[in-house]
Amino acid sequence: MAVCNPKPPLMAIFVFFLFLLHKTTSESFSFKFDFFEPDPLPIALVGDAISYGGVLLLTRRDQVGDHVVIRKNSVGRAVYLTPIHLWDRFTGNVADFITEFTFVVDSGGPVLHGDGLAFFISPVQTALNIPRNSSGGYLGLFSPENAFNPSQNQVVAVELDSFGNPWDPIPEPLAAHVGIDVNSLRSVNTTGWPINRVPRGSFGKARVVYDSKTKELSVTVSYGSKGGTTVSVSQIIDLKRVLPEWVRIGFSAATGDLVESHDIASWSFTSFLRQPESK
């Protein structure tokens, strides 16, 4: 697969603005992968996830003769290993951040396919642990036993869900959607995802931005250049009340009885955590 490496002008502007605003008073962190070399890779690949040809393949597919077979009930995660300082316990300040990634979700042909992928933020200690029985609509993020119990989970996720399950806003198979999840598989806000209206194998681009002042997490998913298909969704979330001070970030994906590929072609992340100026 060819790796897509689009120019990120909006992200560059966002990062430059934050740098000017916080350059003397911020703790900053960033990384950027235009493609994923297999070694060394500061990303943990868990479950069925692998790096192949410079791309992260989150769920399993095998070459069988002349055909590629996408496997059912496959779950995989790719987690950036360095912990991220999300908020400061002494000042109470929360980080601003932006992450962008390009991805391909390909059904392999069938009209019905599943189940989806997610960008997630979770505690350092649990980020590498895939819950048991979390294939299919659980997206490798939640176990069936606690998927809808916020007191039993600690994760914020942006899901690109290609199959409408009974707990989704539109419980119909073709109701693909982008959702924001807070400690539960039942999204707090969603919008439609046009995965079934773009050509097979299309590169999508997702942007996730958190503004600590407004506490707004905003998500944009787009296909194509100017005039292409773009959807967006946002939600007010006080991350300090939901997640611990230090977190890990990554991707999770799953297939169930229905299948599709879940590939990450590029990924960047930048955060700024305001700190008191030294006297």
Based on the coordinates given, report the CATH architecture: Sandwich
General form: globular
Please state the structural category: mainly beta
Q: Any idea of the CATH class? A: Mainly Beta
Count structural domains. Answer: 1
Average of pLDDT: 91
Query: How many strands in all?
Result: 18
C-alpha Rg, in Å?
A: 18 Å
Q: Which regions are unreliable across 5 or more consecutive residues at pLDDT < 50?
A: 1-8
Domain Legume lectin: 29-272
Protein name: Legume lectin domain-containing protein
Keywords: Lectin, Signal
GO molecular function, one term: carbohydrate binding
Please explain how this structure is put together.
The chain is mainly β and 279 residues long. The protein has one domain: Sandwich (Jelly Rolls). The chain has two helices and 18 strands. The strands form three sheets. Strands 1, 3, 4, 9, 14, 15, 16 and 18 form an eight-stranded antiparallel beta sheet that branches. Strands 2, 7, 8, 10, 11, 12, 13 and 17 form an eight-stranded antiparallel beta sheet that branches. The protein starts with 8 loop residues before the first helix and ends in a 5-residue tail after the last strand. Mean pLDDT is 91; it is low at 1-8. This is Legume lectin domain-containing protein. One of its GO terms (molecular function) is carbohydrate binding. Keywords: Lectin, Signal.
